[in-house]
What does this fold into?
Amino acid sequence: MKLAYQRILLKMSGEALGPKGFGIDAETVRRIAAEIKRVHDLGIEIAVVIGGGNIWRGADAAATGIDRATADYVGMLATVMNALVLQDAMEKLDMVTRVQTAIEMPPVAEPFIRRRAERHLEKGRVVILAAGSGNPFFTTDTAAALRAVELNAQVLLKATTVDGVYNDDPKKNPHARKFEQLSYMQALNMGLKVMDSTALSLCKDNHMPIIVFDLQQKGALEAIMCGEKCGTLVADVEER
It folds into this structure.
């Protein structure tokens, strides 16, 4: 089988781990781990960046009066909790994993070291990257774009709860139109909620293609790896 990609970075929101967007649901985590395993078994090198919005959202907390930097650091710790839960589910499926964090916490996980992360990927280990970029005021989307570029991933896969990018919320508007493909500038200029503008600009500057897809759709991740068109592609014009 000819695969479309050999090394990927999967960006998951923390909300994906809870059926109602908050908390952690063990069965949901197991299902996500199984989807990742199907791709891992194809021989694809996988890095995962996970958010923490199911536990804590820094921007929302800051709106209540908590210092924004403090709120963001708490959010980074939430991503570590999610990473450890996902690691446990993956290892129960016999995947070898490593959690690396942007904030050092040696008893829990390795610090993020690019060369070490690349070596883990080369050895077939799934690397789960937590604590965002380690800096407040930057989202986990931006951390995902940064890590994708650093680790020489071939594509950044943005897992959401809808099957691509639309011109309106498809859950509220049944006539919302889905985009099969967009340029970075189109996504930026139209204000589409693909990723935040910092993450999009970083991908644009480094020619990192983004595929937005629905992780809840069984087999979607594997289908993308096999070259099938799923979700929405955001890329350079020349990559079309």
About this structure: The chain is about 35% helix and 20% strand. Residues 7-239 form a domain with the Carbamate kinase fold (CATH 3.40.1160.10). The chain has one domain: 7-239. The longest strand covers residues 7-12.
